[in-house]
Amino acid sequence: MNGVSRGGWTSYARKIEEVGADALELNVYYVATDLDMTSSDIEDTQVELVAEVRSGINIPLAVKISPFVTSIPNFAKRLVDAGANGLVLFNRFYQPDFDLDELEIVHSLDLSTSSDLRLPLRWISILHGKVNTDFALTSGVHSYMDVLKAMMAGAKVAMMASSLLHSGEQAIGQILSDLEEWMKEREYQSIQQMQGSMSQKSVREPAAFERANYMKVLNSFRDLP
């Protein structure tokens, strides 16, 4: 369910629960264009929306958020405190393009690629063990390796909408097969065994997720073919 402001969303959430939904994902998607609206105003509105929806339903509530937040850890904590049972990182803003021949705005859908995995992977790795909630990773999950990375970061769910739109639902069987083979070769007994094993609190170099690793990334350019 896509939500921006308080009000009608709570009644829709109740209706969704009444027809038999086991859980609800609230996508808080807002593009700020008002010069007088501060970042605090936007975050306060979204936190209040989550609290209101939470008060109106009994089923689990996940909240899908944007990466364009000044302090993602603080915002994540506030959403969980407001009643979110899980966080989905991140929604993708679809950007308009220009048709220079017709001088019109063009709306097109660009599916994600595996390179889009890095942003949610980083933040789930940072938040795992710090914010008491379940995480779902969305954007960039296309292969069994992407699923493994999501789990090792600390996610409980890896979402694959773009992959399924591109390859069809038959792709799931191969991904599961490759995943199981990889786990057997490395003697993993379960997904739970690996969850969070590459999160910031678990790795030997926690600064790799922060700016302290910036120079190493730049120097890696020299090693490119």
Q: Characteristics of this structure?
A:
225 residues; alpha/beta; TIM Barrel; six-stranded parallel sheet; two-stranded antiparallel ribbon; 8 strands; 12% strand
Describe the structure.
There is one protein chain. The protein has 225 residues and is an alpha/beta fold. It has one domain (2-200): Aldolase class I (TIM Barrel), CATH 3.20.20. The protein is built from 8 helices and 8 strands. The strands form 2 sheets. It has a 6-stranded parallel sheet. α1 (8-18) runs parallel beside α2 and α5 packs across α7. The longest helix has 18 residues, at 39-56. It starts with a strand and ends in a 6-residue tail after the last helix. The mean pLDDT is 89.
Largest sheet: 6 strands, parallel
Number of strands: 8
Q: Regions with pLDDT < 50 over 5+ consecutive residues?
A: none
CATH H-level superfamily title: Aldolase class I
Based on secondary structure, the structural category is alpha/beta
- Could you give the order of strands across the largest sheet? 1-2-3-4-7-8
Total count of domains? 1
Described by the principal axes of the CA atoms, the overall outline is globular
Number of helices: 8
CATH architecture: Alpha-Beta Barrel
- How far apart the termini lie comes to 45 Å
As for the CATH topology, it is TIM Barrel
Name of the CATH class: Alpha Beta
Q: Overall pLDDT, averaged?
A: 89
Percent of residues in helical segments? Answer: 25-40%
Strand content: 5-15%
Radius of gyration from CA coordinates: 19 Å
Query: Would you list the SSEs in sequence order as H and E?
Result: EHEHEHEEEHEHEHHH
